[in-house]
Amino acid sequence: MRSVFQTRLYSESGTPEPFLNGNHSNYLEEMYCAWCANPKSVHESWDKFFQASNASAPSDLLNRPSGNLPVAAQTQNRTQTSAQAAKLIEDHLAVQTLIRAYQIRGHHVAQLDPLGILDADLDSCVPFDLITSMDKLGIYGLHESDLDKVFRLPTTTFIGGNEPAISLREILKRLENTYCRHIGLEFMFINDVEQCQWIRQKFETPGILKFTNQEKKRLLARLVRSTRFEEFLARKWSSEKRFGVEGCEVLIPALKTIIDVSIAKEVDHVIMGMPHRGRLNVLANVIRKDLEQIFCQFDPKLEASEEGSGDVKYHLGVYHERINRTNNKHITMSLMANPSHLEAVNPVVQGKTKAVQFYRGDTKGKTVMSILLHGDAAFAGQGIVYETIHLSDLPSYTTHGTIHVVVNNQIGFTTDPRMARSSPYPTDVARVVNAPIFHVNSDDPEAVIYVCKVAAEWRNTFNKDVVVDLVCYRKRGHNEMDEPMFTQPLMYKQIQQQASVLKKYADKLISEGVLTLQEYEEEVADYDRICEEAFTRAKDEKILEIKEWLDSPWPGFFTQSGEPKSLTCAPTGVSEEVLQHIGNGASSVPVKDFTIHSGLSRILRGRAEMVKNQMVDWGLAEYMAFGSLLKEGIHVRLSGQDVERGTFSHRHHVLHDQDVDKKTCIPMNHLWPDQAPYTVCNSSLSEFGVLGFELGFAMANPNALVCWEAQFGDFNNTAQCILDQFISSGQTKWVRHNGIVLLLPHGMEGMGPEHSSARPERFLQMCNEDSDVYPEYTEEFEVKQLFDCNWIIVNCSTPANYFHVLRRQILLPFRKPLIILTPKSLLRHPDARSHFDEMKTGTAFQRIIPDEGLAAQNPDDVKRLIFCTGKVYYELAKERINRKMEKEVAIIRLEQISPFPFDMLKMEVDKYPNAELIWCQEEHKNIGYYDYVRPRFRVTVQFKRPIWYVGRDPSAAPATGNKNTHLTELQDMLDTSFNLQAFGDMAF
């Protein structure tokens, strides 16, 4: 039977508990005293442990029962026993603290730099609590004489393997081997004990870095491919920029290991994003893109039309289905195209990954995963890295774990790490989401492969992000034409002397007898032959197929030529029954026992009243557009800051129970029994990251309406990189259609410069339409215009037109980004209403809304023709009534600004032959639409009639913050618009 001391120290499983606190120390002291009195009173394992720990103690004190001693001797024995117990406890606690120090800070002294000259953490100091010399044992109360003393290990370490107790000397040796060699581990900041234990077991268990001969040969073969590919390109195109991966050739076997392990864990679709460095090698040896297709890109005679892209070869993406030869499983690989804006592709990859998971029903990310590659300077310096990582665990954005691989060149373009970041490591941003960070010396291929294996297992086990930091070097300059010795002379002197990782590893395997020199040379020759044969075939390549470089193909959506099946658009109107059904759903709560806010009850009653009268406001029109698409099997996703309720409290697509916390209801998901799902999700306070994410989501499926709404239109400013580099130019550069919709609240409401203008002039400036050419009109003119443009920009003034443009976005036979300048005050404007008749079958989007009042009935008598767009129409219409000028002034609304409605505009201008033409906008003259519409008006009227500007004067700020100034400017604009003598003989 166990003694009381044994019972206290043993867990339910019969295993000794760790000595972590004072209570356990007291138990240990009691047990030790009991053992000293009678060694057989404790468990056999503790008897052996105490014997080993007290090998130097007098044997008579250890073996004689205290009851046989005189009283004085018993007192002396107890005193000595107590002192020994206290020393034993102190030593064990010291060893535990020492182990913890290595687990927390061992990475600071790990040998990570393959050049042997730099400190990966930018600090050459050794942490005070790491034992780097015997003198430092004293800080723990230990001495050199304790090195051979045996210590029982706590359960928070696995360095003992199957041994419950080992000597201090062996403890230090194993800690150094685990934490201070070629792998540096950062994980102790993770606030989950299970995850920390998992990592400790993976790295601390003795003998983990053991590879079979077959595994070593496979690793060598992959290094051969990675290295010889770069050398082949250097021989054939020595004067071309290639942004090779030389200095980090281990990247290729690292990625292939991640993929191999992930495939073995059920993954069959991998979506990747990376900067330009190493892209060609990844395409060739990871994606397994045909080499001749890659070599074609170096042909200087290649025409732009043959390239199928307007971007350089090391920006291109690809989609490829192949068999993984390691386990003979089919796998789909997608490498996203991206510009030189480095980390900007990160959220795009995450969005596409989320979409593929969503449409597959992969709710845990078990079959679809993402891998992101980064440069060290960019990972530390680019804010989009944080914005993307911050999405990693949000319910509507998580991809259930991303593996981040950092190619840590230990330098930016020419910038040293100490000038490029303030944090110790470039990867420190990942700590905010408790992602483990594995630093590894890239010149130790086996260490790299093991780390990548663990990273893939971590992602599969915990569905969380993980970072692999490949500490390497850049063999050449920023590109192959750059001279790095100008700025890093000492570093590059060392690099020039550095043997390649392939040579080092080949020599190692040959010395171990794993393979012979002849076998190695044959492996090299085989791959060189493959490259030469592909090079020969590439010379015969006549036309490069566009489909070869699509990273997001849509099978069956287009014809094989990449053209739409026809340039026609299905009707966008729907039946009255559908409108009525959606309206009833929008004004009710479909879930029983659900308590809504009293204010929301009034809103629902108001919706019901509108539906009864067959009227819709802006919010209800949106509801009907979404609901009708859901009925047709189109998934709708609306994302952005506060979109569930709507920034202006106009949407309320998610209802919250007022009595039960976190109980919600989405009525739109209850409209039809077999409808498509509706996803509406509030995002993090990010524009760059979230817009990139939604762009990626829209790439996965053309038959989905994906919308991003800015809280205020001008917030698109912080997502400008996504707009400029991906959305406006994506089709031209990468032949990539995308139907993303941007909802940008816009309008001068007197609320100051920050939340007034969505900066439409910036979008219009990037339109690819020629302002000096009047297009040839055909029957398919409207749809052909849309097909030829790079994006569509509208400013709807009626809920019905908003309804139609959202539906048209899906019913078109192709996809273009759609920019909608949405209203603020019009959301509740009494005149901004539409009747069901404007949305029923047979109706469609109106690019221009003509005047239908008295002026239109007598067009020859009209003296002034005002063109405008958006909210300002209602102010002009009200002023016209107040001035009783309905016969003299016609007002025409441009609903679609780009592509410009040349044909309809000409019809309206010709209809009013005697009218003076005015462009009126509420924005300042240098902001808004005037610079865009003016040359197009002039071409339309063949320069025979001037178009006058009415609006605010030029300004650096989009709007005034002073209410009185705002009203004065507005009144001046209205006065000028209706003062028929305002322009007189002014020169055009």
TrEMBL record:
Domain of life of the source: Eukaryota
Entry keyword Nucleus: yes
InterPro entries in alphabetical order: 2-oxogl_dehyd_N, 2oxoglutarate_DH_E1, DH_E1, KGD_C_sf, ODO-1/KGD_C, THDP-binding, Transketolase-like_Pyr-bd
Protein name in UniProt: 2-oxoglutarate dehydrogenase complex component E1
Cofactor: thiamine diphosphate; Mg(2+)
Organism (species): Chiloscyllium punctatum (Brownbanded bambooshark)
Keyword rRNA processing: no
Subcellular localization(s) per the UniProt record: Mitochondrion; Nucleus
SUPFAM superfamilies associated with the record: Thiamin diphosphate-binding fold (THDP-binding) (SSF52518)
